[in-house]
Amino acid sequence: MFFKPLISSLQLKGCEVVVTTQDYRENLDLCRHVGLNHIISAGKPGPTKLDKLKNYIERVQLLTYVYHEIQPHLAISMMNPETCHIAYALNVPNVCFCDNLGHDAPLTLPLATRIFAPFTVPLTDLAEYGQVQANTLFYSALNPLVWLRLHEVNNDVLKDLGIKKKPVIVVRGLTSLEKQKIEKLDACVLSFSELSNPMFDMQSILARCDVFIGAGETMNVEAAYYGTPVINSCPKTSYALKFLEENGLAVHASTPEQVVVEAKKALKAGRNNRKAHEVFGRMEFHMDQLCEKIMVS
Question: Could you give the C-alpha distances from 149 to 111, 152, 254, in angstroms and in order?
Fold first, then answer.
């Protein structure tokens, strides 16, 4: 979702863009849904460390062949280790988009020619991986705004799904115990697993539900953007989630009991439309300017 508008902008500037992806159902469904032509570079790894290593080797071999055939002038990824390693080995300039410093950071950032990051990522944290301000460009928006500002909300989405009971709570990534406790509330509780078909307009569902309880970053930001109260149940924080909590657009709940308490509070307090408008209204993402910076990397 993040790269689709970027790809379109680069193509409008005359660039030939080749998209690669791993053979994950979610990735392939998304590529088909947004109309992205793509090259499949490897299948999904197995559960063991040996499986993951074999998958890494397979992906590096396939991508090396692609790079050798295409001879790209630039590699762009969301901190993808294989992409960064191949680009470095073949002396191809390597642009990394970085919104979090997870386990891939030490494998990718030291090899990046240039880094693009949201304003929430501290330069001091990037400096731990050898990056300096001259190599880093910050933009004043969270990544999901790239597609959210292009999305037209279907206000009848819940009606279209046959949902009549109100209020509506959408949950993702909860433990079975947390979900059991939430389902005891007087509300319609929808699990993401029931809505994960790409034909569902998930952004509109997040915009029209009354509360979202999530254990990940992207959907939490999406829900908060629309003013939907967000309960963050993720055990690990991130720069974006911390920003949402500091600005009153999300609350953190670390136990099933806390999740239920915060859900009740959110239902009583109502939506955060005005606050969301104020916070996200200050953010800007100029794709044309970003493309120009990428092309000179």
Answer: 32, 8, 31
